[in-house]
Amino acid sequence: MDINPNILGIRFLQKKEAVPYHNRLTYKTTILLLILLKCCRGKGCSISKFQIIMNHLHSTKSQEELIEFIRTEQTFIYLRYDSTVIKALEYMKYDGLIETQRNGSFRITDKGKKIAENIWRDKEIFLFEKKFFTELGGSLTEKLVKNITSNLFSV
């Protein structure tokens, strides 16, 4: 069977070494769906908000730093734009899992929500991430995200 190695500008190439799980498109897609489901709740999510959450996802220490920042706004939060998050969003949009709103933020579709809810109900996968998203909830508002980005770029 022939597989198209170039879908929507995303090129899939076989690698000699395994790609770490947190850099895989399927992992990022799943995590972004869970973020939309649990941390954005129908209001949509900006690219900067996705990036901030993804930047602080992979260790308990960085998760605690983000939660502390949200509570006090007195700690430093870093924002690094990861191109694989952008690629995952493009893939998700192409696959009908998300849609772009007029303000440029992303909203989960019914198809994406159904998938995200099934993943959320599974008691054996993404436990570390689910715990963080439950604690984070909607506390990282777009207003706070704008404050973070404006402070970073006004230096």
From TrEMBL:
* Top-rank lineage group of the source organism: Bacteria
InterPro entries linked: WH-like_DNA-bd_sf (IPR036388), WH_DNA-bd_sf (IPR036390)
Record-given protein name: ArnR1-like winged helix-turn-helix domain-containing protein
Q: What is the source species?
A: Salinicoccus sediminis
